[in-house]
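User: I'm preparing a small set of examples for a lab meeting where we compare how different chains pack in three dimensions. I only have the primary sequence for this one, and I'd like the structure in token form so I can line it up with the others. Please keep the answer compact; I'll paste it straight into my notes.
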Amino acid sequence: MFSAEILQKSEQVIHLFNKEGIKIVTAESCTGGLISGALTAIAGSSNVVEGGYVTYSNEKKMADLGVRPTTLENHGAVSLQTAAEMAMGALERVKKYHNEAAKIISLSVTGIAGPAGGSKEKPVGLVYIGFAFNWDSDQTKTQEFNFTGDRNSIREQTILAVLDLLAKVRI
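Assistant: Understood. Below is the structure token output for the 171-residue chain.
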């Protein structure tokens, strides 16, 4: 189901976050839950993975994660702003079930995996990854990526980019 590289990187992230006591929540659009799937393919992931949101439509982004309609109208579903609001929305929803000492990271992905849906301004392969950390004054960090290939390749590259970024997280 997942490549050996994805499983190896997922295992590294689960091991690191288990050791550091960090919980993860995901908010996925273009990957449709594949990041959560890759992480939970690893034994012991229940100590780390809190859960996830698959918010493919704008309506679900607003209803489940609190993405503002004005953000979607002004910047679109595929934007740094939407990725940041998705990550913060997931973090806010999970934080209320934990004490203040809990270390939680949320991650979001929104992009155009193709083969259709791209434009000159936002081509197929454009992906935004967002993170929010509750130990960093609820700050968000976002990054833009431009991947190439077919739909499956773009989604796989997105998963690998997320796992690489997660492996660099330090408290």
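A couple of notes for your slides: The chain has a mean pLDDT of 95. The chain has one domain: 4-167.

User: Perfect, thanks.
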